[in-house]
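Why do we care about 3D structure at all? Because function follows from shape, and shape follows, mostly, from sequence. That is the central idea of this module. The next example makes it concrete: a single protein chain, its amino acid sequence, and then its structure expressed as tokens.
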Amino acid sequence: MRLFRFATAFCLPALLAGCASTSVFSPYPGQAAQFRAALDAGTPEAAVARIGGKTTSADATLYLMEKGRIEQVAQQADTSRQDFEAVIGRFQAQDDKAVVSASSYAAAGASLLTNDNARPYTGRTYERVFVHQYQALNFLAAGDLQGALVEVRRANQVQGDALRAKENSVDSARSDAEAKGFDASRYDSYFSAMDLAAGRVKSAFQNAATFYLSGLIYEVAGNSNDAFIDYRKALEIVPDNAYLQRDVVRTGLKTGLDDVKKLARTLGPLQVGPKPGEGELVVYIEEGYVPSKQPVSIPIWTTQTLNNISFPFYAEAVAPQLLTVQVSGQQLPAALLVDTRALAVRSLKDEVPAMLARAFLRLVTRQELQRQARKNDSTGLLSLATTIYSLVAEQPDLRSWLTLPGSGQVVRLPLAAGEHQVSLPGLAPLTVTVKAGRPTLVHLVVLPGKTYSRVYPL
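And the structure:
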């Protein structure tokens, strides 16, 4: 009776509030496909228009991330910076709120009565890292090197905090489910198709592209020591990246570090930095899109019934195809910095045990509510609430930031000061001015229907 009285007072309004999420009854991948189609057609303004007022919805964080990314691709750095600043503020508010213990009975009830998809979107860790990475580019576009440094430091801090949190994490939902006899490992086979893609990365959030951008900005600021540290962190994530190997050697030798001499010997007589009268061209390429989640139905047993529950799943996440950039007649292979497709899959794969546990607990709670409703509900209110709850509970959470790139790649080379032509298949030659003694950053976004470009003189 206690659960029945609580649910009558709380369940219906809580569920209706949860249903206010824009994506509960309109699966998010279908919405994001419209944003992507507009970008592919070369009409990013149409993508922004489709987002419209959704930036004030329960999924505001997600729509703001999409909008900030689209605006940046369209070279609208000022509005992109405003949107990403709003996202960062929301992240901070979430973190502050998480410090406060949600130990009240109402909060505990809400965690069982609200489906994952009905919760406001809070972002994955790898998405948070990208927010700061893109915000750093927005500051570079405004010529604000110090602002860019702040953002890359924030991106690196997010990754460090995530590593520490992973080491100390405690999943109360999983513990509660296990206490009720639930064994998440029985369901591993249903998600095993994601193992290959998830295995392409060391973690669900480590992003060498952010460390690379950080190292580049530190170099421009004249801080070779910090540049070396971040290049080395990036190289630990993607050890086969030949450009990064040279960056580590160059900055390490500048700071007089002996431990880079061995790596320098393995590279041989290759030029690792510009000569007098030369500058450097750094081409950062983002290709394609991250994959969308799809629903998969899995049978979950409780003590009472067998229930088919729908969960998010990645059906495929192809490995990145490394591109070739033509620079003033030279064909240069790009090297991988970040496999975002694999980060997305790994992130979901890591969430599976807790996701299964929450689904089991919701099933148990729902079955008890239905039993109480049949026994005690004379008004029909609780029956209505449990019906709505059942409908929402069957919707898998397919939300993720879907205008993110499939991968990030880099090409870096010393060039004589002056004008140079940069091109990719499908991209008209782009004239770039290289200055002696300084790097020039070219950002290319290679999408299925169109390639966007921006040059950042550093």
